[in-house]
């Protein structure tokens, strides 16, 4: 999708092994309509103001890309990349996405999304992007529900080098603790902390979106 002016990329992290739901892979699990979780997550992101949308693959990359491509928006089709060091932890998956977003000169920030958070809606994403573009001096934007922060988190391009320097399997948590007081906040619902990391939660997801 062509946009003038500053842009915010969306980086969707989808490289994990999903070991806690084995033998099922959570991102391939269908909801009540038959839509795989990764496609459901991308439906809201590709309908938003975010662009480009970069999906970072790793474990079972071909299967997840195929599932993600079932329901894409033609005008904002995601770009798929594979993190070469995804087995080394979440930080390396994030770094691959940040490097890809950095290649776009107009991108002034990146919204880091988790592939297993399909309840995040387009409205929240657009409000976070609007808040960031209104306050570009902030390190980023985070959603908050009843005083608790969650995902996704939007990061300023100024912090891309720090994101690239992260190590281990905890993503950007250390950086978030460091910059939390300066982050802009957007009110959100309980969906910002709702994931599907266990077999019981996958069973819950299979009943979601019964109305389409």
From TrEMBL:
It comes from the Bacteria. Pfam families: NTP_transf_3. One of its GO terms (molecular function) is nucleotidyltransferase activity. Residues 10-180 form the MobA-like NTP transferase domain. InterPro entries: MobA-like_NTP_Trfase, Nucleotide-diphossugar_trans. Keywords: Magnesium. The keyword Glycoprotein does not apply. PANTHER family: MOLYBDENUM COFACTOR CYTIDYLYLTRANSFERASE. This is Purine catabolism protein PucB. The lineage of its organism: Bacteria, Pseudomonadati, Pseudomonadota, Alphaproteobacteria, Acetobacterales.
């Amino acid at each position: 999708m062509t946009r003038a002016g500053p842009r915010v990329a969306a980086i969707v992290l989808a490289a994990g092994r999903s070991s806690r739901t084995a033998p099922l892979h959570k991102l391939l699990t269908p909801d009540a309509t038959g839509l795989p979780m990764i496609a459901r997550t991308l439906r809201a992101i590709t309908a938003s103001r975010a662009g480009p949308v970069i999906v970072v693959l790793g474990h079972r990359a071909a299967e997840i890309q195929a599932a993600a491509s079932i329901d894409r928006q033609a005008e904002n089709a995601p770009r798929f990349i594979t993190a070469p060091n995804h087995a080394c932890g979440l930080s390396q998956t994030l770094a691959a996405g940040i490097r890809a977003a950095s290649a776009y000169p107009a991108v002034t920030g990146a919204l880091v999304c988790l592939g297993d958070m399909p309840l995040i809606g387009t409205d929240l994403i657009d409000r976070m992007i609007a808040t960031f573009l209104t306050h570009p001096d902030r390190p980023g934007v985070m959603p908050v529900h009843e005083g608790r922060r969650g995902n996704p988190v939007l990061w300023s391009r100024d912090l891309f080098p720090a994101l690239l320097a992260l190590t281990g399997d905890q993503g950007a948590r250390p950086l978030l603790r460091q910059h939390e007081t300066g982050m802009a906040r957007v009110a959100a619902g309980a969906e910002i902390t709702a994931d599907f990391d266990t077999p019981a939660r996958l069973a819950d997801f299979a009943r979601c979106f019964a109305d389409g």
